[in-house]
């Protein structure tokens, strides 16, 4: 059976400089794992029994980044499933998009992660080494730009 996980792509908007586009002020939250290859990823984790996918995404975000659902705004109209093998087994990860209500909210990492960064799209894509993650970040950015 496929492993299922859920998470949130979290972004914040900084005050844009008067000359810059609004989308230039968007930064994405990536967490660096404290295990394996120390890869960078949005907060995500496995679905627990009795939980729906979105509950899992919010619970994992609270556990891994210390962010409560009340500190985030879920963005309607964006949901993405990624499918890839992990240790020879199929894995599905479902992501939603959420904006920080206060861009200065403190991130509190769990033991699962050793670092976090707020990154502009280009840097986020460099840190996210997997091609499907890079594609999703670009897709999210395009989605946000189209809403401006």
What composes the largest sheet?
A: 7 strands, mixed
Mean pLDDT across the residues is: 92
> Which architecture name does CATH use?
Alpha-Beta Complex
| CATH evolutionary superfamily | Nucleoside Triphosphate Pyrophosphohydrolase
Number of domains: 1
InterPro entries: NUDIX_hydrolase-like_dom_sf, NUDIX_hydrolase_CS, NUDIX_hydrolase_dom, Nudix_hydrolase_domain, Tetra_PHTase
Keywords: Hydrolase, Nucleotide-binding
EC number: 3.6.1.17
Cofactor: a divalent metal cation
Structure in words:
Keywords: Hydrolase, Nucleotide-binding. It comes from Dicrurus megarhynchus. One of its GO terms (molecular function) is nucleotide binding. Belongs to the Nudix hydrolase family. Its EC number is 3.6.1.17. The chain is an alpha+beta fold and 148 residues long. The chain has a single domain, classed as Nucleoside Triphosphate Pyrophosphohydrolase, CATH 3.90.79. Helix content is 25%, strand content 39%. It is built from 3 helices and 7 strands; from the N terminus they run ββββαβββαα. Strands 1, 2, 3, 4, 5, 6 and 7 form a 7-stranded mixed beta sheet that branches. The N and C termini lie far apart (41 Å). The mean pLDDT is 92.
């Amino acid at each position: 059976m496929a492993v299922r996980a859920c998470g949130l792509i979290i972004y914040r908007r900084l005050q844009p400089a008067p000359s810059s586009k609004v989308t230039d002020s968007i930064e994405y939250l990536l967490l660096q794992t404290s295990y394996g290859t120390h890869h960078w990823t949005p907060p995500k984790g496995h679905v627990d029994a009795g939980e729906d996918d979105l509950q899992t995404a919010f619970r994992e975000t609270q556990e891994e980044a210390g962010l409560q659902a009340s500190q985030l705004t879920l963005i309607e109209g964006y949901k993405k499933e990624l499918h890839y093998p992990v240790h020879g087994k199929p894995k599905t990860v479902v992501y939603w998009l959420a904006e920080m209500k206060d861009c200065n909210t403190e991130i509190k990492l769990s033991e699962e992660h050793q670092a976090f960064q707020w990154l502009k799209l280009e840097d986020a894509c460099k840190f996210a080494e997997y091609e499907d993650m890079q594609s999703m970040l670009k897709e999210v950015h395009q989605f946000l730009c189209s809403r401006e």
